[in-house]
């Protein structure tokens, strides 16, 4: 066990800083979409992925997938999947 919770506090800092900006979401659907994107970004960061590469990866593959009828296909796109880690690893994090 770590003696401090600095890692956790640093992980939630973007959320607490951005919270004032989210007050101005025009609709509940807009707020929901923002929350989904934010969740993907933070999950990708937590899994050591380059955010740009990850979004490029999922937005390139999703249109060609029949994920509406086969939702299990989305497992390959999750930030913790081995394929996502293979294609989207953040090289800067690997160097440290």
From TrEMBL:
Residues 1-32 form the Transposase IS66 central domain. It comes from the Bacteria. Coiled coil: none annotated. Transmembrane segments: none annotated. InterPro entries: IS66_C (IPR039552), Transposase-related (IPR052344), Transposase_IS66_central (IPR004291). Residues 39-80 form the Transposase IS66 C-terminal domain. PANTHER family: BLL1576 PROTEIN. This is Transposase IS66 family protein. It comes from Succiniclasticum ruminis. The lineage of its organism: Bacteria, Bacillati, Bacillota, Negativicutes, Acidaminococcales.
């Amino acid at each position: 066990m770590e003696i401090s919770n600095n890692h956790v506090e640093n992980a939630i800092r973007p959320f607490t800083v951005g919270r004032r900006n989210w007050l101005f979401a025009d609709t509940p659907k807009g707020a929901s979409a923002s929350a989904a994107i934010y969740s993907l970004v933070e999950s990708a960061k937590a899994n050591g992925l380059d955010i740009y590469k990850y979004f490029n990866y999922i937005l390139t593959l999703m249109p060609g997938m029949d994920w509406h009828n086969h939702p299990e296909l989305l497992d390959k796109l999750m930030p913790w999947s081995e394929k996502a880690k293979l294609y989207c690893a953040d090289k800067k994090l690997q160097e440290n």
